[in-house]
């Protein structure tokens, strides 16, 4: 049994990952902005999980949330950074508020979560798994803001990987394409009804995150069945 | 139970994939150059496998081998192209024979196997999984010939993926870094003793190749535990 931190655990992929981790016997510290969503998960999953509300784009809140997680379950073996947000449409439509929200939710949170992870388990070792997106592999029409934040994450994480070479903290980068979830509720530029389910994507990811003695998955790309 | 074709099945990763597939209940047509190695696998695995000797760099032999596989197990659901070869050293040392061998074993075989796979199951649908290498992601000293063949494979497969868009045949590209096997027996530029085991790499790959209803792994990168 390991202690694993999952961000964005209240809905969509983060929720499915949390449920899958508990089914595999792990304890999960669930972080997210909306405490009510985390409470629903606590009711479902009982004492194997704890909900910790935090805005992961704010340094003090990330620091406090990680401290609370360690107080509950000890140093984590793995951090899965799944929290994120999107705003979509042609480049001209984004408001300053939308731009700030997407950059903070995706890129800034990745940096702050990585800092805490390195601080806590950089020398002990473990895994930092980050959920990027197929939007980090290519440019996409009506997704310029989202792509910007996801390519930024990728550049940060690839650099961190070089920086961590020889350390015992491993980076795993996960690149799903569109997942069927409330993430798309405010978008009309895609039809998410044929997107992959959070459960299917989570199953592949948890298989890839299983520890083996001589090797580990570094990058996983998942596409939908068209 | 599915019928799966594995090339390079006589040793190393191909052997481990075959053993893992049989353990998961599948039938495997094993292709390779050395019939004796395939016979050893037949003795180990019994009626779940058949060995078919072929030089996969020759069009007629690939065609005959695929015909024999279909005669034995029907149309395959999946083809895993694992066969390959390496020659290493600074750029000046490669002989014409070595250059021919690496390009044929890796790149030409990939094209010929893909042609047969598209011909057989391009409309029915299925999976063509190809084992590339971390040498298809970066340039490496003392591996210029090997990298050339693996980058060539990647370019071919990425183009084929675009060409197959909308078809029911899926491409899965697998990128392990160094695997501990006889592949390295004639090399002295690396110490393969800390490379990943064929069994660990095969386990991740077979997990990633499991079918799910809404999505599929498109690319899997595996690094060794340093």
Account of the protein in words:
The structure is a homodimer of 226-residue chains. By secondary structure, chain A is of the alpha/beta class. Chain A has one domain (3-222): 3-Layer(aba) Sandwich (Rossmann fold), CATH 3.40.50.720. In chain A, 42% of the residues lie in helices and 19% in strands. In chain A, strands 3-2-1-4-5-6-7 form a seven-stranded parallel sheet, with helices on both faces. In chain A, β1 (3-7), α1 and β2 form a beta-alpha-beta unit. In chain A, α1 (12-23) packs across α6 (198-209) and α4 packs parallel to α5 (144-163). At the A-B interface, α6 and β7 of A face α6 and β7 of B.
Q: Which CATH class of chain A applies here?
A: Alpha Beta
Helix-residue proportion of chain A: 40-55%
- Give the termini separation of chain A: 37 Å
Mean pLDDT of chain A: 93
Number of strands of chain A: 7
Main beta sheet of chain A, described?
Answer: 7 strands, parallel
Structural class of chain A: alpha/beta
Helix/strand order of chain A, N-terminal first = EHEHEHEHEHEHE
Give the spatial strand order of the biggest sheet of chain A.
3-2-1-4-5-6-7
The multimeric state of the shown protein is homodimer
**Helix tally of chain A?**
6
Low-confidence stretches of chain A: none
* Largest interface, C-beta within 8 A: A-B, 30 and 30 residues
- Morphology of chain A: globular
Radius of gyration of chain A (CA) equals: 16 Å
Query: Looking at this structure, what is the CATH superfamily of chain A?
Result: NAD(P)-binding Rossmann-like Domain
């Amino acid at each position: 049994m390991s202690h694993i931190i999952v961000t964005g655990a209240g809905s969509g992929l983060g929720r499915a990952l949390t449920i899958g981790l508990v089914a595999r016997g792990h304890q999960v510290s669930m972080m997210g902005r909306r405490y009510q969503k985390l409470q629903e998960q606590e009711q479902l999953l009982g004492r194997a999980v704890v909900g910790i509300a935090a805005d992961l784009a704010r340094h003090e809140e990330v620091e406090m949330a990680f401290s609370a997680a360690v107080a509950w379950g000890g140093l984590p073996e793995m951090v899965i950074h799944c929290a994120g947000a999107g705003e979509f449409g042609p480049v001209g439509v984004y408001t300053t508020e939308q731009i700030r929200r997407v950059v903070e939710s995706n890129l800034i949170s990745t940096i702050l979560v990585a800092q805490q992870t390195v601080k806590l388990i950089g020398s002990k070792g473990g895994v930092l798994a980050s959920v990027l997106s197929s939007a980090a592999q290519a440019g996409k029409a009506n997704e310029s803001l989202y792509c910007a934040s996801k390519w930024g994450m990728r550049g940060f994480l690839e650099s961190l990987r070089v920086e961590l070479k020889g350390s015992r903290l491993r980076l795993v980068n996960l690149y799903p394409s569109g997942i069927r979830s409330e993430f798309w509720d405010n978008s009309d530029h895609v039809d998410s009804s044929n997107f992959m389910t959070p459960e299917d994507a989570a199953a592949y990811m948890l298989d890839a995150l299983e520890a083996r003695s001589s090797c580990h998955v570094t990058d996983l790309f998942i596409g939908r069945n068209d």
